[in-house]
Amino acid sequence: KQTKDSVTLSWSSGRYQLRVWRSPFRLEILCEQELVVTFNSKGLQEIYHTLMEHKTSVIEEQSELLYIILRNTCCAFPGPSSVGADLCLHGFRHVYGLPEHSDNLQLRDTRDGEPYRLYNLDVFAYQLYSRLGLYGSVPLMVAHKPDRTLGVFWLNASETFINIQYSPTDHQVTFDSVLRAEPQTDVHWLSESGVIDCMVLLGPSPQQHFTQYAQLTGYQALPPLFALGYHQCRWNYIDEADVKSVDSGFDRHKIPYDVIWLDIEHTDGKRYFTWDPVHFSEPTRLQQHLEKKKRKLVIISDPHIKVDPHWSLYCEARDGEHFVKDREGQIFKGSCWPGNGKPLLFNVTTRAWYSRCFSLDKYKGSTPSLFVWNDMNEPSVFSGPELTMPKDAVHCGGWEHRDLHNLYGFYQHMATVEGLITRSGGLERPFVLSRSFFAGSQRLGAVWTGDNVANWEHLKISIPMVLSLSLAGIVFCGADVGGFIQDPEPELLVRWYQAAALQPFFRGHSANVTNRREPWLFGDEVTAAIRTVIQQRYSLLPYWYTLFHQAHTSALPPLRPLWVEFPEEESTFSVDSQYMLGGALLACPVTEPGIQEVKIFLPGSGEIWYDIRSVQSYEGGRTLSLPVALDTVPVFQRGGSVVCRSVGSCSCTAELHPDCNLLSLQGIADGELYLDDGHSFRYRDEKAFCLRRFSMLSGRLYKGMQYLKGKASPVFLLSPGTKDISAAFQYMETCCKLTVNTGNLRVAMDWEIQIG
Ligand SMILES: *[C@@H]1O[C@H](CO)[C@@H](O)[C@H](O)[C@H]1NC(C)=O
Ligand SMILES: *[C@@H]1O[C@H](CO)[C@@H](O)[C@H](O)[C@H]1NC(C)=O
Ligand SMILES: CC(=O)N[C@H]1CO[C@H](CO)[C@@H](O)[C@@H]1O
């Protein structure tokens, strides 16, 4: 439809409409005649065009697609141009996303101070509840109200600021007169350079929103199974003997783990791709030692190449012109760990060269069980403004650093990942951890929250930080256990292990000036508590792996704010101290010292929740006070769910034995298990995987239990083509727990267990 002032397009049988107004220019998206989003709601684009020369808005209404080209300029930045826009999100009072900030999950109204800033920076011991930039950026804002989840994706990699205004403010909402006012959230985006490339994702369900975002930026890579195990890192394990002794410490104390890590000191004078000739003289032997136990080694590799004309890798990079230039056209010099090193620029040729550096023949001392950690890739430049690269440095094609700053780490991550895939002839899944990231980094691997501190506040903030990352697609994330900087007291260390075991990336790490903190150094009680937590992580790995399969194929994050599972329950919208792990488990890690009791909100009236330790059941829609001891980790399983666990002990992920665990009140339960070889691309190329659904259908389980008592063996295993057999079982009446020995029934076969 067209009028003098507007053009209206509709889709979805007229359910959705887009209305474009000419003057003042604005775009409105409506659903069933109700406004959802207005773009250029404050008409600020009109104001800017008086400041400088610009191209006016052009609407080509004849073409099949509607193209809207906007270009504007303003004076907020010293660079040549900047872009900005206002959006009004109608009916929304909760917005999230925009990582990375050390802040609550729900974004705050910025009228009281600074806007949220997206600018990747190396911030040592970062301040909490700050809106300044940290290591990575995802310019995705997620808004939610009971009937809609909506995303605003602002695709721009230059320094970006976001202002947020909630109306009416929370404060006013309590007054009757304002209560009736329709809530809205006004958002202002401003980027230092580029064009406006803004996408609105309409949901309406959280799941649809995740899929829409993944269709734009990619799905989470399926990690190798070992990467979901426990990682032990320190700056630095000093030599081969040290590594072997820490490795055997895990066996001695019966604590499973999969990967040991080496920080910068493993290199020969901070030349990445080399080994310290004294402390790591036989790197292959070390990796083989670990590989015999099915464990891996991860080494650090930063994007800074040490200037050393006697080092072949430096000469190759110099001769291949792989270095960033300064504004005068000279090779850019910036200091980082290698001293006066040169950060690489990441054009396609450079990336291909850098990827090849990871090949087994070129990277001497590397084996297929060596994996990589990209650090300092914001990039960190000790001598630069805000410890990063100056904005006028010049990349390939003449691009100024200001245009693509937030993408720098992403491209190093990408080149490293490509290097590992190529190294294996395209057969093996890579594992690369990166500190810096951008929208789409989920396609590459894992990220962590950088240089955190060993205190309770940092433990507490790790939860909203990983939830924000998860909402923005970067779902394989975690925070360093114990805090990287300073020494945690034993209670904090235990609580940190408990919380981090329920986060996707699970790594203990500590700085060079801290005391050693391997799990067995703090007495038997602490060792036992940490052992229990890591063992529980391993027993839940079949569930974690299945959740990663879901993230990989349907973009649902393993870690979900409560509102993702309970989208209509407003009482969940601001909760960020507890969360859902998949659809079945609710986690509420203890993050405060010396407490005897925690308050836990169990959402969903009509839901039943089971404390996974006591198997005691609780009704949803209430807040529970749960007594806690040092070894209590409050986790609840949702009634009606099936969670697959691994049984028995193991020393690493290669020894897992999946099993099923089902909880239900009504006799109906449902869940999935995904299995494959755990390391290759055969699941993708040859469809070599197994995805099983476990359903419990008819009958009331509780009644079945009553019936069980009188009979000798009322549990039958039914499998097509075989005779029905009665199965051995145990029944614990106190907690209504039935354990069935399923003998040779395999997960990949179809079968049925009939009770009673
Ligand atoms: C990328 O770098 C290579 C090697 O220096 C150069 O030949 C090529 O022109 C560069 N590409 C672009 C787009 O600048
Ligand atoms: C830790 O590393 C920093 C940076 O290299 C160095 O200055 C310091 O001396 C190191 N401290 C120890 C105890 O190794
Ligand atoms: C440069 C520009 O005008 N806009 C860019 C904003 O950032 C994204 C991510 O790099 C680019 O794809 C856009 O072209």
From TrEMBL:
It comes from the Eukaryota. The keyword Hydrolase applies. It holds the Pfam family Glyco_hydro_31_3rd. Keywords: Glycosidase, Hydrolase. GO terms for biological process: carbohydrate metabolic process; N-glycan processing. Residues 221-547 form the Glycoside hydrolase family 31 TIM barrel domain. InterPro entries: Gal_mutarotase_sf_dom (IPR011013), GH (IPR017853), Glyco_hydro_31_AS (IPR030458), Glyco_hydro_31_C (IPR048395), Glyco_hydro_31_N_dom (IPR025887), Glyco_hydro_31_TIM (IPR000322), Glyco_hydro_b (IPR013780). PROSITE patterns: GLYCOSYL_HYDROL_F31_1. Residues 5-162 form the Glycoside hydrolase family 31 N-terminal domain. The keyword Hydrolase applies. Residues 556-643 form the Glycosyl hydrolase family 31 C-terminal domain. One of its GO terms (molecular function) is alpha-1,4-glucosidase activity. Belongs to the glycosyl hydrolase 31 family. PANTHER family: ALPHA-GLUCOSIDASE, NEUTRAL ALPHA-GLUCOSIDASE C. This is Glucosidase alpha, neutral C.
